[in-house]
User: Fold this.
Amino acid sequence: MTTDPPAPIRVLVVDDHPTMRYGLKVFLSAQSDMVCVGEAKSGEIAIKMCRDLDPDVVLMDVVMPGMDGPTAIARIRSEMPAIQLIALTTFGEVALAQKAIRAGASSYLLKTISTDDL
Assistant:
């Protein structure tokens, strides 16, 4: 009896910087157990895409123009509690990390993290 391999982890990338989104998308495409199902440049777009795409995981930038990451995280967490949310930022401020975690992020990672650790 053969078993099918597990479905890849479906990831939505949210960042206001196109280069960061591209880099994460390339990283995810190199992983055999993950797939980038979409990318968004704002919290507002991320919420809509979560409704439409139902990703397993969202990699969410914390500081973005318009709706910031923690606000989007809280909205996604309240509407779609099964989605895992990981906050990403260039800022190492404890207050930002606490805000993202209180909003519902599973973890908070600095963008300087190595691809192996990510």
